[in-house]
Task: structure prediction
Amino acid sequence: MENSVGRVINTLESDKIAFKGSFFPFFLQKTIWEVMIISMKKIVRRIMALFLVTVFIPIVLALSLNCLRPQRVKRTVQTITYIPHFVSTVVLAGMMNQMLNPIIGLYGNAVQALTSYLTFNILIPSWVF
Result:
């Protein structure tokens, strides 16, 4: 333990590492904090845009659909907006089923090639943990 800590300290104090030459002077420049603030503002704007698209707009859509009187329009709009999520979930589940299939899947073929026997080893706790 002490040996690895000593190695880290020696590495940080070494002249071979670029901390002294370029890393620390980078933070001593006059414009660095201005650049950091601009970068943080961009990050916050992207997070807010992501929040708007993924949380706020679906809630507004659901509430506005709830206020619609004609059931036919409401069901049509809900079907059109929710089908892509349903289809992607079904496709992902089908792909996982095919890959993890112990008989014809990628995982089953790899286990059979390595251990030379076929088993439902995902169901055996000693294989998983």
Notes: The mean pLDDT is 80. The chain is about 80% helix and 0% strand.
